[in-house]
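Sorry to interrupt, but I need a hand with the structure work. Could you write out one complete protein record for me, on any chain you like? Just paste the record in under my message, thanks.

. . .
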Amino acid sequence: MTGNSGQTDRLLRRAAQGDSEGWGALVAAHRDRLRRMVAMRLDRRLQGRIDASDVIQEAYLEAWTRLAEYVRSPPMPFFLWLRFLVAQKLLTLHRHHLGRRMRDPAREIRLAGGAMPEASSAALAARLLGNTTRPSEAAMRKELSAALQKALSRMDGLDREVLALRHFEQLNRAETAQVLGIQEGTAASRYLRALKRLKEILVQMGLGEAQL
């Protein structure tokens, strides 16, 4: 299976034959990365209404039912397949809860595997500012967050997405390239360009390089 380790391949074959323990070990290894992805892409209007764990669990259930199909002909590495299923669940929830008239098309991005919720500028800003602000600094944090969101929204959409994938979701270069449907070298150069641009924005705002 292209892109999977030998151990992952063995566990997948066992899971496809009904080994639930092996399946549990496989998916548990990816839960934290998938939670980061959901946190980056869950529309803030749905925060508190949708739990990341529920989204991931629904995707795991679908993956289990489709596992034999995946093992016969894997379209991508196992983690990226899980991530794709989670993204599709999240997109369905966005459309269901927000409705077409409430949904901003700009909140979705089309990648190699199809449409998925875009990494929001609000989520990126929150990750950059961190969660250590003292109560006395709350007003300043709110102003900085608004300014940072505005600056991030002015970045090229693909550059912002590369930044989200590499820096926040912590996908490697090969994974990023496959998600975006571009060459690894292109993914690497776009990431460096996006990171440089973000650092410039942070310096201009007096934030240094924040948590980069």
